[in-house]
Amino acid sequence: xxxxxxxxxxxxxxxxxxxxxxxxxxxxxxxxxxxxxxxxxxxxxxxxxxxxxxxxxxxxxxxxxxxxxxxxxxxxxxxxxxxxxxxxxxxxxxxxxxxxxxxxxxxxxxxxxxxxxxxxxxxxxxxxxxxxxxxxxxxxxxxxxxxxxxxxxxxxxxxxxxxxxxxxxxxxxxxxxxxxxxxxxxxxxxxxxxxxxxxxxxxxxxxxxxxxxxxxxxxxxxxxxxxxxxxxxxxxxxxxxxxxxxxxxxxxxxxxxxxxxxxxxxxxxxxxxxxxxxxxxxxxxxxxxxxxxxxxxxxxxxxxxxxxxxxxxxxxxxxxxxxxxxxxxxxxxxxxxxxxxxxxxxxxx
Length: 349
Ligand SMILES: NC(=O)c1ccc[n+]([C@@H]2O[C@H](COP(=O)([O-])OP(=O)(O)OC[C@H]3O[C@@H](n4cnc5c(N)ncnc54)[C@H](OP(=O)(O)O)[C@@H]3O)[C@@H](O)[C@H]2O)c1
Fold this sequence. Notes:
The chain is globular and about 55 Å long. The model is unreliable at 1-44 and 50-76 (pLDDT under 50). Strands 3-2-1-4-5-6-7 form a seven-stranded parallel beta sheet, sandwiched between helices. It contains ten helices and seven strands. It has two domains: 1-91, no CATH class; 96-341, Rossmann fold (3-Layer(aba) Sandwich), CATH 3.40.50.720. The protein has helices at 30-34, 80-85, 105-116, 128-141, 156-170, 193-221, 242-262, 280-293, 297-306, 316-327, and strands at 96-100, 120-125, 147-150, 175-178, 224-229, 267-274, 338-341.
């Protein structure tokens, strides 16, 4: 959310270090165009980048620039007078994102990070109470109009209908984070056809249906970012996660195939591969492994950490930051990649 406040006296100032990870797009956002007065964006300290993302600007909307998106510009290339007259808004302002599995863990972290960059976010999951709590939290992070959809990825048709109805209400959604709960663990030899079909349905089929539903909106807006949350098992299978390993490979190649097909439209598709990330899912996998192997939970966790060059688990917000970057205009030429975010674990395997 860019908070619009009448503030005639503020001069444009910033201490924002302009880095690749924190590019600044300046535009006359529709929100600001509607306000026929000077405004100030509110600075919020960013938890990862340690800097204010939003820039304090001042200016009057003009007809010439109203509603028009200008090319991305870095602050350090702007003249002082440009800085004084430009409207600086969070980079994803005016864009809506849909985040699957958005009520906790990695999905919630992605939703929060996208909101911090100004996006309006719709989170999807099964537990309505948790979704409501996340939407309340998103309101404090940024963006201006957050919503949720209660849906179960076990029912792809119902999910697609709900997403389509939502688009009717809120308009085009141009950022999609494909994410849902992972399949249960176990050796692949023990997997039943139903378990395999269920996992393929929850991950591959749901992704496909959501993309097909959102694509017309991405085309109409001339903007599209699809990020698939998968797993480092795309690079090397993880012992004891048979169904997951098999499914992740399929989803990763689906994503890269789609990347080739959508590239001519300027829509990117990328796969983010989280390593051991400290969420409820990871803790339940560790507990199951401890039970299976008669080790203590601490031992299982210690063994996992020993395999990570960084010597620690990842934080969900560290996945969210990467996903949010891929959703920005700055990532326009990153397409079809499998990007591990794993503290270097797969680099040294
Ligand atoms: N954490 C890790 O270390 C790690 C590593 C690699 C890959 N991954 C993968 O990344 C994804 C997210 O992991 P996470 O750790 O964030 O998991 P998590 O903490 O368990 O969160 C899963 C999210 O998905 C939702 N969800 C689960 N099943 C669903 C269903 N059938 N329909 C709709 N929503 C559903 C959950 O909400 P509801 O229960 O309310 O529906 C929740 O919001 C998973 O696919 C996981 O396997 C995780």
